[in-house]
Write a structure and sequence with these properties.
iron; eight-stranded antiparallel β-sheet; transport; Pnp Oxidase, Chain A; 4 iron, 4 sulfur cluster binding; Pyridox_Oxase_N; 20% helix; 220 residues; Alpha-Beta Plaits; alpha+beta; two-stranded antiparallel sheet
Length: 220
Amino acid sequence: MLRVTTYITRKPQERSPMNAQDCLQTLRDIKDVSFATVDQEGHPQIRIIDVMLVRDGALYFCTSRGKDFHAQLMRDPHVAIVGMTHDFKMVRLAGEVRFVTDDPHAWIDRIFEQNPSMDDVYPGRSRYVLDPFVIDNGCVEIFDLGVSPIYRQTFSLGGAPTHLQGFQITDACIGCGTCARNCPQQCITPGKPFAIAQEHCLHCGLCYENCPVQAIEKRG
């Protein structure tokens, strides 16, 4: 009996092209996003911080000098940020923070102009207990769960290297199609070797776990 294998492929839904600036603006539109740092004992810490400004490929926020968050930023500039929109677009940013040394009071004034509710929290000159920080170097990713198949793309911010994630199929592939049949997003297509459409990959690892000849490896 001749066995016929059918591979199901789905075309991505129409979407507007995005870039790094668009991702930063999405974080600004969300505004209240999660910032992760590491404390002096090496333990992860996370809190909600407002994205105050986005301009020219840079994201600005502020925090007061008395907070542990401030001390952590000054000790180790590496941060990770994540936020999600109501329609399930997740933006992640991993990068390095810089204290804005160029007239920090003027930057705080700009932040308050764009975020007038801050006047109720820090009235008058009490605002200057806040220090401005900027992230203009890192790796930013859009991960859209609101379309089918899912869509993801990674961008460099400030020329920083992007992080390779997910899986790739090597030349050891025998063309059996096990990976394609197990893929929940149907983003693997036949070829020599089979190929993963990285922009639609969940990074779940089912193809990696089920390949009978271990022809699939992690990227990066």
